[in-house]
Write a structure and sequence with these properties.
The protein contains one helix and eleven strands. The strands form two sheets. It has a seven-stranded antiparallel beta sheet with strand order 5-6-7-8-9-10-11, with no helix packed on it. Strands 1-4-3-2 form a four-stranded antiparallel beta sheet. About 16% of the residues have low confidence.
Length: 147
């Protein structure tokens, strides 16, 4: 199952990121639940910032884009740039993406918001509660340190 929409970033004060998992609420029952964000396109003017997005959910008997079978949840592909998102029923996630820079690489995410991301730009370990360690180039950045 796929869906498309527009998020009014400037109004809603929220953004989407390809590869993330979102909860859809307030829709008809078959269209509610967890979806992988498969593609996001920013549309900006001097007065507005919107995101056009595509959501993907594979269910029983469903096929992910390009006929790839679902694996315990979601499998998403963003077209020319390869991306696979797998989410367990408990909302643990693995994202593998060929996007360049910090958007690509491998990301492991816990349902609590904790994550480990490995990209060409570096490694980030984030506990989802404000503490993180980022290793980029020749630098180590630590947040949430108690001294």
């Amino acid at each position: 199952m796929t869906g498309r929409g527009i998020l009014h970033v400037s109004r809603d004060r929220a953004t989407l990121r390809a590869g993330s998992i979102v909860q859809v609420r307030g829709s008809a029952k078959p269209f509610e639940g967890l979806f992988a964000v498969g593609r996001v396109r920013h549309v900006m003017t001097s007065h507005r910032h919107d995101q056009e997005f595509e959501l993907v959910r594979a269910g029983i008997g469903a096929q992910a884009p390009r006929g790839r079978p679902a694996v315990n949840g979601f499998v998403a592909s963003t077209g020319r740039v390869g991306q696979v998102t797998i989410v367990t029923p408990g909302r643990q996630a693995v994202v593998i993406s060929d996007l360049p820079g910090p958007m690509g690489g491998v990301s492991l995410r816990a349902s609590t918001g904790a994550r480990i991301s490995v990209t060409n730009d570096g490694i980030v370990i984030d506990n989802g509660q404000g503490a993180s360690i980022a290793l980029t180039r020749n630098r180590v950045h630590v947040t949430g340190v108690i001294v």
